[in-house]
Amino acid sequence: MTDLNALVNNTSVSRTGLGWTNLRSTPDGALYTTDVGVSLGVEGRIFAANMGLVTTPLATAATTAIVNTTPHAWIRVPDGTAIVPLYARIVVESQSITTQGEISLLIAQNDIGNGTSSAADAGPIALNTAAPVTSACTARQLATGAATAPTNPLELTRFSFAASAVNQAFEWDARSLGVYSVVRGEGSWAIYIGGNAVNYYAQMVWAELSEADID
User: Fold this and answer.
1) Burial tier of 124 (Cβ tally within 10 Å: 0-12, 13-18, 19+)
2) If we measure between CA atoms, which residue out of 40, 10, 45 comes closest to residue 25?
3) What confidence category does residue 22 fall into, taking pLDDT thresholds of 50, 70 and 90?
4) Are 91 and 167 in contact (CB under 8 A)?
């Protein structure tokens, strides 16, 4: 009989690139072989940001269409960093337009910048809140002045919401779809909203690694 041993090393993981490396497990001996998300979460490599928080939503301007230089929630990915978008949720609390509104969730091959915007209300925050890992990304919200148009934008999903929408929620979940995109820096993951004075909350969750760790 052969014993199978694994290294308990959860928050200070060594990545050696190509070649042999140790198997890794939780302290109870459970191997990280079924869900890479669990492994990255324990390591502190899954981050989240909130745009709009608690009882204070954000509000778009009085526009009636999505504008590619006006993102409303986005993650800026710097050179040397790669992210895997995992989950996004947008809650439209209310809007004033009399026709349907739209939401576009996309990735882009450039950093769309800040434009005139503010930092996300919360985040990036590691979902292992005690992990000694910080995000290299920047989370922004509510551009009121032009950011940079996305290069080669690839829309992951699009939602429509009804006129005079009240508390309509929209979710995109990479795991349920089996679709995992990798945004390598410089790049962006962004939400755009079309509508008139749309009051909204957004949450964005992603896994983050050094680009060197995925080559």
Assistant:
1) buried
2) 10
3) low
4) yes
**Is 177 strand, coil or helix?**
helix
Is residue 202 pLDDT above 70, yes or no? Answer: yes
Question: How confident is the model at residue 36, as a pLDDT?
Answer: 72
Spell out the domain ranges in the chain.
46-214
Which CATH number applies to 46-214? 2.60.120
pLDDT band at 101 (very low <50, low <70, confident <90, very high): confident
pLDDT value of residue 168: 87
Alpha-carbon torsion (154, 118, 96, 172), positive or negative: positive
If we measure between CA atoms, which residue out of 192, 179, 183 comes closest to residue 77? Answer: 183
What count of other Cβ atoms lies within 10 Å of the Cβ of residue 142? 23
What values do phi and psi take at 161, rounded to 5? -130, 155
Task: In whole angstroms, give the CA distance from residue 127 to residue 103.
Answer: 26
Contact 188, 113 (CB under 8 A): no
d(CA 95, CA 101): 8
DSSP characters over 142-159: EEEE--PPPSS-EEEEEE
Q: What local confidence, expressed as pLDDT, does residue 133 receive?
A: 87
Stated pTM of the model: 0.86
Strands in 97-153 per DSSP E: 101-108, 116-119, 122-126, 138-145
State yes or no: pLDDT of 18 exceeds 60. no
